[in-house]
Specification:
Chain lengths: ~325, ~260, ~290
């Protein structure tokens, strides 16, 4: 053993900052699990695929909520826009899935740019209202334009095989699973790169203290707009995959419930740590399914469970499920210099 | 006596205000303030509580929009510049009450600032670790205020006095030309305040410094010029001995034993 | 000409009746948000519970409608006070995200609770004879129920303004909304004050829930979610903690909503959201909110 250095000194702190972006072995766990699930539970691939997509969606939300501290109750606006872009393109004959997905990211990103320009001038409750209003406006719009959007009944559409090689399979979810998996990896890597870049650090600064950020010369609004667009694009990709793997879209993609649930999942898992999205979405979705299969949907036991879980989380574990382990980790670190 | 105390005395002020006013409804918090700060100045602004000193700082930095009058930096009206743009032009402040990133470490606090000043904070792809020179600069600043043993602690783990030093280090990290210090030793226990004052005394001579301070010992030791604000208006402005001798200042301020 | 006048009065009557309902339910929310800076997404749940209590008192138990409303008011006010003391207290002053989640949690529990107790089916109310039919205004017949809604709303608005301007509690509330710290240092017990306000606000919401069952098209367990947005919008557009503002916003949004749905049955629903967007852009702190 070398001479133990206290973890608080300058060199150690600088080392931590310089090495923060490096991959750790433990980060492989969720990916190994995701691969294993495909082979171990072939009957649950639909559910597992949905979980992968929702994780991507939650990661995009984490960028703005967990990192930049922008609380949004309307993130489904971007999810739905990406989804409708991909679906309507396919419906109109543009059936190549990856380019449709990319265009979904673009339209969602544009919506993020325009709405962010407006919404991010405001703060706190007003900001919350405006994010919510945007989501609801789009939902109402989609509902009224049901001859285009298919309304509650939805539209069925088909995509050509991915890269011309792997056709979508809505029965066994083979290709579909790997399609979602691949874009989750990609989206995660983008998000992870961004948060470990100086840009991502400055988002944390905005979350921690906006006044100070102004005073160190940060164009705060501009930076928030940038992350808002990035998050919108990733959410758009998630939305596109969500409908592509099912071959069907309804206005449910714009529903307030979508925005609310994804926020809840993220918070349950823990914000500002990317991996919180993995835990939160997985636990939430599996529990929801279990509850509804075992106890049924009437009376709504699941709502009761979620409600109680939220209240308990806020009161006793405000940093989410992953946050529960923080004190343990800290104690562990302090004992082993 | 007041005739020669106006801004006319100054030749090339870096920072100047002309007729600066601010009202909140019927409440006037800044009344027609003329003020000038030359390069390398050591200028104290004093006044009783509620005189509008922090408001004045907020008007200078752009955190508050003025109701009337103008703020000039290098002779140019900066009314159209947002707070962060003024920082980029070298106008930097500290806060009366610590305004830091409480959940981040000391080094991260400084790092964010350095990254912003060096213009790398917009970088989306290269990780923090790929630019060791930015981190090294942050380390250097941490050492400058002698916080190297606390560099890895979060702000909320530090005693208030040492948090105060982080305020100063952040201001220095921005390489200011004009530095507005809002009661830098406020809230610091007496035994530790000398660390702050030493840090201020060691600031580069060419920085124009405006300091708001209640402690008269500090004011008279540090300032080459003093402006007295009362009820949002300039009551007097001049060299320390003149201010100390000014009857009106004694009456409204020094006499009340605010030091 | 006569037709245009007829349409205009119809919109006005129905719009104002709806606006009164929005005001009665939202005003408590506005004050709690303004006073404690507390984002209470569960406010609609109190209205929902009030509605259910009213329905169940009237139909199976045969309690007169007006008496049922009063009982619902007091029961839910008491519930509000208890919730404030037991639960809400812990999240005051916490980050708004925590408050959002916590109160959404309460909405979920209330939705589940209502379904457990009263089932998932939509409920409607048997209005007393006296509120059915039309009333003749000389130039026009309007439904008694809407007229009653407007009158009841007017009485409540007047009582509220009187209470705020003339009573000690009213003065304390105004002081606390204006500057809480200052009010506390003047010896106003803001904690207890808030429990009272919270109870009153919850009671008002319950009253609105009971009064509005007909206008809102019946009660379902998802009521607390469905109408949450509109109550929040009224508060945001009016300006937090500003009772006059809430009233103006309720009138504006109530009339616009009805007019939108009247002229454009297919797409009038999102008019109010557009208006909200514009108002909040123009005045981020609401029409009469303080900066």
């Amino acid at each position: 053993m070398t001479v133990p250095t206290p973890r608080t000194n300058n060199g150690a702190a600088a080392g931590a900052l310089l090495r923060a972006h490096r991959f750790r072995a433990i980060e492989l766990i969720p990916w190994i699990l995701a691969i294993a699930v495909y082979f171990l539970f072939p009957g649950y691939r639909l559910l597992a695929t949905q979980i992968l997509v929702l994780i991507l969606f939650a990661i995009s939300l984490d960028l703005i909520v967990g990192y930049a501290g922008i609380v949004s109750l309307g993130h489904a606006a971007f999810f739905g826009t990406g989804a409708y872009t991909a679906a309507l393109l396919a419906d109109a004959g543009w059936q190549e899935p990856i380019s449709a997905l990319a265009l979904g990211a673009v339209t969602a990103g544009l919506l993020g740019w325009v709405s962010g320009w407006i919404i991010l001038r405001t703060r706190e409750l007003t900001l919350l209202m405006l994010t919510m209003a945007l989501g609801i406006i789009l939902y109402e719009l989609a509902k009224d334009l049901d001859d285009i959007t298919g309304g509650f009944d939805g539209i069925n559409f088909e995509n050509t095989a991915i890269l011309g090689l792997f056709p979508f399979d809505v029965l066994y979810y083979t290709t579909n699973y790997w399609y979602a998996f691949a874009f989750l990896v990609l989206g995660f890597l983008v998000a992870r790169t961004v948060v470990h870049a100086p840009f991502g650090r400055s988002l944390v600064g905005i979350r921690e203290n906006v006044r100070r950020m102004h005073a160190i010369g940060t164009p705060v609004q501009q930076r928030m707009r940038h992350v808002y667009v990035i998050a919108a694009m990733i959410a758009g990709v998630a939305g596109a995959i969500w409908v592509q793997v099912q071959g069907n879209i309804t206005i449910g993609v714009y529903e307030f419930e979508m925005s609310g649930n994804i926020l809840i999942m993220l918070i349950l898992g823990g914000t500002g740590r990317l991996y919180g999205a993995f835990i939160g979405v997985t636990v939430f979705t599996i529990l929801e399914n279990l509850t509804e299969t075992v106890l049924g949907t009437d009376p709504p036991y699941w709502e009761l469970v979620v409600g109680v879980a939220l209240i308990v989380t806020v009161l006793f574990a405000p940093r989410g499920l992953l946050g529960v382990f923080d004190p343990l980790i800290r104690r562990f670190r302090e004992r082993t210099p | 006596m007041t005739a020669d105390l106006g801004p006319a005395v100054h030749e090339n002020p870096v920072l100047e205000t002309k007729g600066l006013c601010k009202n909140f409804g019927a409440l006037v918090v800044a009344r027609d303030i003329d003020f000038a700060l030359e390069a390398g100045a050591r200028h104290a602004v004093i006044g009783p509580n509620g005189a509008g000193k922090t408001t004045f700082v907020n008007l200078l930095t752009g955190a508050l929009p003025p109701t009337g009058g103008s703020v000039l930096l290098d002779g140019l009206d900066i009314a159209g510049l947002a707070e962060h743009e003024r920082v980029k032009r070298g106008l930097v402040r500290t806060f009366q009450i610590n305004t830091l990133f409480n959940g981040l470490t000391v080094l991260e606090n400084i790092y964010l600032t350095v990254a912003e000043r060096m213009g790398v904070a917009t970088g989306l792809f290269r990780p923090v670790g790929s630019r060791p020179e930015v981190v090294a600069e942050a380390e250097r600043l941490v050492e400058m205020v002698q916080l190297q043993d606390d560099a890895g602690r979060t702000i909320d783990e530090l005693p208030y006095g040492r948090q105060r030093l982080v305020e100063i280090a952040i201001a220095l990290a921005l390489e200011p030309r004009v530095l507005l210090l809002d009661e830098p030793s406020a809230g610091v226990p007496g035994a530790e305040s000398h660390i702050i004052l030493d840090a201020i005394a060691a600031l580069p001579a060419d920085i124009a410094i405006m300091i708001i301070e209640h402690d008269m010992d500090v004011v008279f030791r540090f300032a080459e010029r003093i402006t007295v604000l009362v009820s949002g208006a300039v009551l007097a402005s001049g060299p320390p001995d003149e201010i100390a001798a000014d009857e009106r200042v004694r009456a409204v301020y020094l006499g009340h034993g605010h030091g | 000409m006569a037709a245009a006048f007829d349409i205009a009065t119809t919109i006005l009557v129905f719009g104002v009746a709806y606006a009164m309902l929005l005001f009665i339910i939202s005003v408590g929310l506005s004050i709690t948000m303004g006073l404690m800076g507390f984002v209470n997404l569960a406010h609609g749940a109190f209205a929902m519970v009030g509605g259910y209590i009213t329905v169940k008192l009237v139909a199976p138990l045969g309690v007169p409608y007006l008496l049922a409303l009063v009982i619902a008011f007091f029961l839910v006010a008491a519930l509000g006070a208890v919730m404030d003391r037991l639960l809400y207290r812990h999240v005051y002053g916490r980050p708004e995200l925590d408050q959002v989640l916590f109160t959404i949690g309460i909405v979920f529990v209330s939705v589940a609770g209502v379904s457990f107790v009263w089932g998932p089916d939509p409920q409607n109310i048997l209005l007393p004879e006296i509120l059915l039919g039309d009333v003749d205004l000389g130039f026009k017949n309007i439904p008694v129920y809407r007229a009653f809604m407007i009158v009841a709303g007017g009485v409540i608005v007047a009582a509220l303004f009187f209470g705020l301007e003339r009573t000690k509690i009213g003065a304390q509330v105004r002081a606390a909304v204006d500057n809480r710290r200052m009010a506390e240092s003047c010896g106003i017990p803001t904690g207890r004050l808030f429990t009272i306000i919270f109870a009153l606000g919850s009671g008002m919401a319950a009253l609105g829930g009971g009064l509005g069952i007909q206008i809102l098209g019946g009660l379902k367990p998802v009521f607390a979610f469905e109408y949450l947005v509109i109550f929040l919008i009224v508060v945001a557009v009016g300006g937090l903690g500003n009772i006059r503002g809430t009233f103006v916003a309720a009138l504006l949004l109530g009339i616009i909503d009805f007019a939108g749905k009247y002229f454009l049955p297919e797409g009038g629903g999102f008019f109010i959201y557009g208006v909200t967007f514009i108002v909040l852009l123009w005045r981020p702190h609401g029409l009469l909110g303080k900066a």
